[in-house]
Write the structure tokens for this entry.
Amino acid sequence: MSHLPALTLAELKLFAAFSIFLTCYFVFAVGKFPGMKIDRPGAAIIGAVLMVAFGIVRPDRALSAIDFKTLVLLFSMMLIVAALHLAGFFEWITQWVVEHLRPRHLLPTVIFLSGLLSAFFVNDIICLAMVPFVLTTTRRMGVKPLPYLLAVATASNIGSVATITGNPQNMIIGSYSGISYFAFLYHLGPVAVAGLFLDWLILAKAFPAAEVPESQAGEFESGAAPAISPLVKPGVVILIVLAGFLAGAPPAMMAAFGAAVMLITRTREPRQVYEQVDWGLLVFFAGLFVIIQGVENAGITDDLLRLARPLDIQSAGVFTVVTATLSNIVSNVPAVMLLKSMVPKFANPHVGWLVLAMASTLAGNLTITGSVANIIVVERSRDVAEIGFGDYFRVGLPVTALTLVVGSVWLWWIK
């Protein structure tokens, strides 16, 4: 009888951890708690507090559960991209590209520009910059914007798979895996390049009219180009930061250095930069780290790993399907946070980390709600071009399926 209270307490903690985990991931999947104004960041914070309150995570361990390297990297990249945006960098580069190419090349231009920028910067922010450019350009050319908006969404997801700084889930994987920036690019860069070409092929087949004949194209007019002088400092800083990444410097420290230099200015109020930071995403990450620590402490991840053992989850193909499916149920960041505890136990964790990054990112192209980048494109263009679920899915399904196959085969071959 003396062992009964301890056993009951352990069972209570396990039940509480499982309940908190399921409830929070339900909110992550649907976006809000039914009947209440609790969104994903709110659910993450509430879940973290409950994990501590039920004793699943000790109070002194809650802060150590948060991976501050990931938060610093994400926050610093947001500051860098915000400073670049305010300096007119994205307006300048998109205008320069369009003015030096023929209008019939607009579709591949949008695809590869979105993909290239998303490879080195956070893809969500690239979508914020690219949507106004696409709407202005298509209006001047007299063509429907739908295929080009779909190009921004799908290409930004595909391009972001290439590097640690391409998207939030890659930042998590980079921090936990120990894979260098260059090694990440070496292994997943080819997947991004091949994926962008597939994206171009699928969009061109789905929207033949997107290839604009010269006789129908109007002149591109987007107003005066931004002055070059404000772009010099941001351009130099970003080149130094990218060089540091490729040279093997810690990504979080290198990004923090770049952000700090960007904030040294005599002409711009810092609050203008801070206003462009997605504080909700940072809060979401902090809470999610604590929730996952509670899940690990309760042994839930070990139980899930045992349940998945018959599936041969360590196989690249099977792990790709599992990651892609989970990413479309609860979104890619929560999926990565859950699966990251399993990868170190794989026979080849290096390949496991790369598959997790590849599959969680490319799976985001399946539906509108598959990634934040997709939602940004849909919401920012709503007043001009309505993107329906079917409009997106007819492109998202083949893009997702083909890129996941290419990514799986490539990682299987190169391992």
About this structure: The radius of gyration is 22 Å. The CA atoms of residues 29 and 329 lie 6 Å apart. The mean pLDDT is 84. The chain is about 70% helix and 0% strand.
